[in-house]
What we know:
- The protein is of the alpha/beta class.
- It has six helices and nine strands.
- The protein has a single domain, classed as 3-Layer(aba) Sandwich (Rossmann fold).
- Helix content is 35%, strand content 24%.
- The strands form two sheets. The protein has a seven-stranded mixed beta sheet with strand order 3-2-1-4-5-6-7, with helices on both faces. A two-stranded antiparallel ribbon has the order 8-9.
- It is globular and about 50 Å long.
- The model has no long low-confidence stretch (mean pLDDT 97).
- Bound molecules: glycinamide ribonucleotide.
- The site of glycinamide ribonucleotide (GAR) has 16 residues, from helix 1, strand 5 and helix 6.
Amino acid sequence: MAGKRVAVLVSGGGTNLQALIDAQGRGDLGAGELTLVLSSSSDAYALTRARNSGIPTRVIERKGKKRETFTRLVLETLREYETDLVVFAGFMVILSPEFFAEFENRAINVHPALIPSFCGEGFYGLHVHEQVLQYGVKLTGATVHFANEVTDGGPIILQKAIDVRDDDTPETLQRRVMETCEWQLLPKAVRLFCDGKLRVEGRHVYIMEEHE
Ligand code: GAR
């Protein structure tokens, strides 16, 4: 099968990027190859992770640009790198509709909650876990989904749930959701996509001949 060129979009620490790098190192990304890490901030530690692994990096600062301008620059860069799949891995920027038209069912996002709970604009990073604890739900987890113009609204690929504990803080919950859900689901979804195992019909994503 022809290789799939995967660009990872980041804004911060990049632990999900690291999970993808580690998966690639183990041969667990299937036909996927990490070809670009694009950051919305030059301070993102994710850039260091990419450089340490020899993956090309680009920075397009979000600050001081209109959403449309930022989106256009991102699209130009993704085209330059002949990107097949875009992965949003802690990418804290909302792109304009033009992006989703070009990358329909070719962009994957990881969200640290069980969509459709605790998602949408304003639900990102630690805030998600603060809201989960405040609400008092007993289960939380992570969702990997195709990204569309509705924030956190695209077809769901994989989800995993874990218990919320009485003594959880936003930080302990975030860490457990990352370790036990996000870092497993994201590389798995990327591999399934790159190996041509995902079929999308409307809101439904079907996984074909999965071998575990
Ligand atoms: C992750 O928990 C990711 O799911 C979340 O931000 C964190 C980034 O961590 N993304 C969102 O909340 C997007 N709505 P990382 O930079 O260490 O991967």
